[in-house]
Specification:
Layout lengths: L4 E5 L5 E5 L8 E4 L2 E4 L15 E3 L5 E4 L7 E2 L5 E8 L2 E8 L10 E2 L8 H6 L17 H8 L1
Parallel strand pairs: 7-10
Antiparallel strand pairs: 1-2, 3-9, 4-6, 5-6, 8-9
C-alpha cells in the first residue's frame, strides 16, 4: 500500500504531515480519525497544549488521534477539511486545494472558534511563516465580527 501522506518532523511545529507522493488538486488525502464526542461535549484540551479537537458542523467532534491530526495550521493552506456523511455519522477528510509536491508539508486553516481577540492572539498565535500570515489560528471572519 502506498500512502498519500506521511508524518515527520515539521519546521513549523512538532510533527507534521507531508505529501508522500505528488498529489493533485481536489484529491482526498486522509480521514481525520480519533475519539468521537457527542454534540456539545468537548474534551479537556489543556492536557498537552496541542489542538487536535475538531468540531463538526452538527455540534459533535473528533479528538484526533490519527495521522491527519498531525497536519499543521497554515494561513495560506494547501489543503482543507471537508465533511461527508456515512451511515448517519459525519466524517472529516483532508483534500488538496492545489497540486502538492512530494515532501511538501500538508497545511490547512484551522479557523478556530475563540471567545475573544485577546485569546486568539495569546493562546492561538500562528507562526506559519506565510507572507499573508494573520498571526492567529482563529477564524478571521469571527474576529472581524467581534471587533465591530
Amino acid at each position: 500500500m502506498i500512502f498519500k501522506v506521511t508524518p515527520k518532523r515539521s519546521g513549523l511545529h512538532g510533527k507534521g504531515l507531508f505529501a508522500a507522493k505528488d498529489l493533485s488538486a481536489g484529491e482526498r488525502l486522509i480521514e481525520y480519525k480519533g475519539i468521537r464526542y457527542e454534540k456539545g461535549v468537548v474534551p479537556n484540551m489543556d492536557i498537552d497544549g496541542l489542538t487536535k479537537f475538531l468540531g463538526l458542523s452538527d455540534g459533535s467532534g473528533i479528538d484526533g488521534t490519527g495521522w491527519a491530526a498531525l497536519a499543521n495550521h497554515g494561513c495560506n493552506p494547501n489543503s482543507e477539511l471537508r465533511e461527508s456523511e456515512s451511515r448517519g455519522r459525519l466524517r472529516a477528510w483532508l483534500y488538496a486545494l492545489r497540486d502538492i509536491k512530494q515532501g511538501e508539508e500538508i497545511l490547512w486553516d484551522y479557523r478556530l472558534e475563540v471567545t475573544s481577540t485577546k485569546e486568539a492572539y495569546s493562546l492561538w498565535s500562528c507562526a506559519c511563516g506565510a507572507d499573508d500570515c494573520r498571526g492567529t489560528m482563529a477564524n478571521p471572519e469571527r474576529l472581524r465580527k467581534r471587533k465591530r
